[in-house]
Design brief:
The complex is a heterotrimer. Chain A is α+β, with helices and mostly antiparallel strands. Chain A contains 3 helices and 10 strands. The mean pLDDT of chain A is 94. Chain C has one domain: Up-down Bundle (Four Helix Bundle (Hemerythrin (Met), subunit A)), CATH 1.20.120.80. Chain C starts with 14 loop residues before the first helix and ends with a helix. Classes of the chains: A alpha+beta, B mainly alpha, C mainly alpha.
Chain lengths: 225, 559, 191
């Protein structure tokens, strides 16, 4: 049921984020049903009735307090489980950039994504660099390394279909990476308030199949091979 | 204490904690209306982008950013804090500890007037050229540090000043609350006989006083960047934008507990009264509160997982964040256990207290999602977060706030509120709040970002638009549902049935004073013999036993 | 009407003292936040020592001496309270005020020189912190001076009784302001 609420996942690590989400969903869902259910049950079962006096229970000694301490301990254990699962996923996504096939530089500037491709020499800062605003072209099935920068304020690079988000901070170069599995057009909005043009600041991630990608490269760097 | 004071000294420049409490309440309720207006304008724009909002007109994108900013700033600093802390804290603490007033009555009065100045400053900021602050209630630089980035000049400067004045006001209040509770307790009122709301208020005061300092420093730095050309947060001058985020959230996180704890305190006072049973786990609740308070200082960077800070910091903060759910879970379990084998009635205070509990549970649970760093990669800066914090903050501020107002109205104003209207207010608010904010989780999961004025500008969000429209309709109905309360409150002030001293048959000391209490509170300073929650005690024939009722015999001296 | 802040109560600690200590706790976090920010940002960048070299070390040292002496005169003022000597009290409070003013004058002199040399607040991140930290501190010194002026006038006019405990409370604040400078001086002038 919940799957329909997420946009399509075309990221190699997206599935792990989604699974972690569901783990938390089932655990918190269970607690939700238990606590709210108990509340409703008690409210009905123990509503005031003639002649019935409430029972005088303090809960301050260990034997009675156990009724809340034991569930508290269970909460702690489940919490730690969620975090240990999370640690692995986090390390994989944000801990290190895997060996990448492609490099691209994305600079946020009120209110556009200035995207610079290094060209066939795979190095930035050389004459064959090409800037295309708001269009990020990548081949499917390849690891793309992104260098995030900003020329003015904090923006946030958000690819919902790749389950990827990373703030772009002026004065820094921040690395992110992704590998897209499926060709298509996917939106690239800015996810950090960046001024009066924040609403509508968006670009496109265009994932090409291998042949299409070749074509796109040839179109943009015709003289190179 | 029976000198006749002039009108001005009685109602305007009063040093009586009860009057000051009512002054804070009035300003807080005024700002709640303004905050509600900002919500109405935002929600209309979101549901029907770029159409004229009925009763207002078009909302331009920069004005939308101002609405977003002011809504957050107003609700957190000018509604939640004045009502939950300053108003309830001021009114209740001296009465509940058996004191005639606060330790520093003139400082108390000064704190209200500084808060009024803060309010005036914020109000003026709407009308200066360039408009009001528009960088979010979080005010991240560089957006907020250079006027050119927002087009807002004096509006943001005044925003910073208003916050600084508000902080000063609450620092004064915090000194008063802590000193009063530590030093002015009546004979027999040991720390472990204090009502839980007093524990909550002083914990909140400690959290506020120890966490706001770095943000005051940060705010001074931000103002200097804007006005003096310094470069604390501007990379072109060697500055560091992330510095603000750390200073802000080091305060920002304890701040949400500063708001939450008094709200929980209100619930913890009301539930035993209408369950006719002691609160379950008085001591575990206190220890949990202290633990949560201490933990709240080491979770702050869970707001910054994706900020560019060292990724290795994410896991430690995820762990502390997830652990902080444990003390709050304990408090929730304790509240539920209080209902077990109780004798429960459902007047409006109890309905709102139960509403607070049930809504807070959902808010706390969605916090687990946000605290998990990998999941946060996706949900950060989406409406899932907005739904989460509305569940926690709205329950603490509004449901608990209403619970407290319905409960202590007789004591504050000497009259009863109308019960059927109160119940109607509860059900309408409960239904429309959930109707609006449950779906909000789903638009967040669909990827809708925060602080955008027009979702239709994004192809991937267009299918979600019907939900946005639904949320708006529910929100407007939620706002309209407050009309029964406004009518009830105002009418009861003037024409409500005269209240007796202790209409709820409750145990805490404020119910021994007249309704409303006179200057000086008590005819004679009470002496305290027992804990606050001796309901359905085997020692008494009735199902309640006030803290200040003398002991029947020496053998009966228990706690 | 009893002077509430003076009454001994539930804990035996004078109420005014409890209040002032909580106030100072919050002030410690203000300067703590500022100083921690300075340290962290400075550790992450370079060029600060070169900028700091332009500060006037002698004037900074003089100011340190001025403030330390003023703390001494403040302690002597409090001793005069305990000895119930209003004239000595007035003298030492007055000296504390003068020393506080001296601090502010020296600081103003420093600022003027620095700005004339082109080291304005906009001159770089070191200068942002320099003006921010010393400026906020100077405002606190000014507040202390004003408080001490009020107290010394009351002392000299023999109207301070029964509130002499306020000298001790003002002393606590004044020592705090001194201690903040003890941190600022090495962080700014000695590195």
């Amino acid at each position: 049921m919940m799957a329909s609420w997420f946009p399509e996942n075309i990221s190699t690590f997206g599935g792990e984020i989604d699974s972690l989400f569901y783990l938390i969903f089932y655990i918190t869902g269970a607690w939700f049903l238990l606590t709210e259910g108990l509340i409703i049950f008690f409210l009905v079962r123990y509503r005031r009735s003639q002649g019935q006096r409430a029972v005088y229970v303090h809960g301050n000694n260990l034997k009675q307090a156990a009724w809340i301490l034991v569930p508290g301990a269970i909460v702690l254990l489940l919490d730690l489980w969620i975090d240990f699962r999370g640690a692995e996923v986090w390390a994989k996504i944000k801990g290190r950039v895997p060996p990448s096939d492609l490099l691209v530089q994305v600079t946020g500037k009120q209110f556009n994504w200035e995207i610079v491709y290094p060209g066939p020499d795979a190095r930035l800062g050389t004459p064959d660099d090409l800037q295309i605003d708001n269009e990020l072209h990548v081949p499917a099935g390849k690891v793309v390394r992104v260098l995030l920068k900003s020329k003015d304020v904090i923006h946030s690079f958000f690819l919902p279909n790749l389950r990827l988000k990373q703030d772009a901070v002026p004065g820094r170069v921040i690395e992110a990476w992704f590998e897209a599995t499926t060709p298509g057009r996917y939106e690239l909005p800015c996810a950090e308030l960046c001024g009066f043009g924040h609403s509508g600041m968006s670009g496109w991630l265009i994932v090409h199949g291998p042949e299409e990608y070749e074509k796109w490269v040839k179109e943009h760097w015709p003289s190179e091979k | 204490m029976s000198e006749e004071l002039s009108f001005w000294r009685t109602y305007v420049f009063s040093t009586d904690h009860k009057t000051i409490a009512k002054q804070y309440l009035s300003l807080g309720l005024f700002w709640a209306l303004v905050g509600g207006l900002t919500a109405y304008l935002m929600r209309w724009q979101l549901a029907y982008p770029d159409t004229e909002v009925p009763g207002w007109g078009f909302i331009a994108p920069d004005f939308y950013n101002m609405l977003v900013t002011m809504h957050g700033t107003i609700m957190v600093f000018f509604v939640a804090m004045p009502i939950l802390l300053a108003s309830f804290g001021n009114f209740l603490i001296p009465l509940m500890i058996g004191s005639r007033d606060m330790a520093f009555p003139r400082l108390n009065m000064l704190s209200f007037w500084v808060f009024s100045l803060a309010s005036l400053t914020l109000l003026i900021s709407f009308f200066v050229p360039g408009g009001a602050a528009s960088a979010g209630w979080t005010g991240y630089p560089p957006l907020s540090a250079k006027a050119a980035y927002t087009g807002v000049n004096w509006g943001l400067n005044l925003w910073i000043l208003a916050l600084a004045l508000e902080f000063a006001s609450f620092l004064m209040g915090g000194v008063n609350f802590l000193t009063t509770t530590i030093n002015l307790r009546a004979p027999g009122m040991t720390f472990f006989r204090l009502p839980l709301i007093v524990w909550m208020q002083i914990t909140a005061a400690v959290l506020f006083m120890l966490s706001v300092g770095p943000l005051i420093a940060g705010a001074v730095m931000l103002l200097m960047d804007r006005v003096l050309g310094t470069t604390f947060y501007l990379p072109e001058g060697g500055g560091e934008p992330l510095l603000w985020q750390h200073l802000f959230w080091f305060f920002g996180h304890p701040e949400v507990y500063v708001i939450l704890l008094p709200g929980l305190g209100i619930v913890l006072e009301i539930m035993p009264v209408f369950s006719r049973k002691p609160i379950f786990g008085y001591r575990p609740i206190i220890y949990s509160t202290i633990a949560a308070g201490m933990l709240s200082f080491i979770v702050w960077a869970h707001h910054q997982f994706l900020s560019g800070m060292d990724p290795r910091l994410a896991m430690p903060f995820s762990i502390t964040t997830i652990i902080i759910s444990v003390p709050f879970a304990l408090i929730v379990f304790a509240m539920i256990a209080t209902l077990w084998r109780a004798s429960i009635s459902f007047p409006p205070p109890m309905l709102f207290a139960l509403g607070t509990l049930s809504i807070f549970i959902l808010g706390g649970l969605t916090g687990i999602f946000n605290g998990s760093a990998p999941v946060d990669i996706y949900i950060h800066d989406t409406y899932f977060v907005v739904a989460h914090f509305h569940y926690t903050l709205f329950s603490a501020t509004f449901f608990a706030g209403f619970a407290g107002l319905y409960f202590w109205f007789p004591k504050m104003f000497g009259r009863m509120m109308n019960e059927p209207l109160g119940k109607m207010h509860f059900w309408l608010t409960f239904i429309f709040f959930n109707a609006g904010f449950v779906p909000m989780h789903f638009v967040g999961l669909g990827g809708m970002m925060r602080r955008i004025a027009n979702p239709m500008q994004y192809e991937f969000l267009q299918p979600l638009q019907p939900i946005n429209t639904f949320i708006t309709i529910a929100s407007v109905l939620l706002l309209l549902s407050q009309i029964p309360f406004v009518v009830n409150f105002l009418w009861s002030l003037m024409r409500g049935q005269v209240a007796e001293r202790n209409p709820w048959q409750a145990n805490t000391l404020e119910w021994s004073a007249a309704s409303p209490p006179p200057h000086g509170n008590f005819e004679t300073v009470p002496a305290v013999y027992r804990s606050p929650y001796e309901y359905s005690s085997p020692e008494a024939a009735e199902d309640w036993l006030p803290q200040d009722r003398p002991l029947a015999s020496p053998a009966a001296a228990r706690q | 009407m009893d002077s509430r802040a003076q009454t001994l109560t539930s804990t035996g600690i004078p109420t005014g003292k409890v209040g002032v200590w909580w106030f100072l706790a919050s002030e410690i976090t203000v300067f703590g936040g500022l100083i921690a920010s300075y340290i962290v940002v400075r550790l992450g960048s370079s060029g600060w020592s070169e900028a700091a070299a332009h500060l006037n070390f002698s004037l900074g040292l003089a100011n340190t001496f001025v403030l330390l002496t003023s703390s001494l005169t403040m302690v002597l003022a409090f001793a005069a309270v305990e000895d119930k000597d209003p004239k000595r009290l007035g003298t030492y409070l007055g000296l504390t005020v003068l020393l506080g003013l001296a601090f502010l004058i020296i600081k103003a002199f420093e600022y003027t020189g620095e700005i004339a040399a082109g080291f304005t607040p906009a001159a770089g991140i070191f200068w942002s912190f320099y003006y921010g930290m010393t400026g906020l501190h100077a405002l606190h010194v000014l507040a202390g001076v004003i408080t001490n002026v009020i107290l010394s006038i009351a002392a000299i006019g023999k109207v301070l009784r029964p509130n002499e405990h306020r000298v001790e409370l003002a002393g606590l604040y004044w020592h705090f302001v001194d201690i903040v400078w003890i941190f600022l001086f090495p962080l700014l002038y000695l590195t």
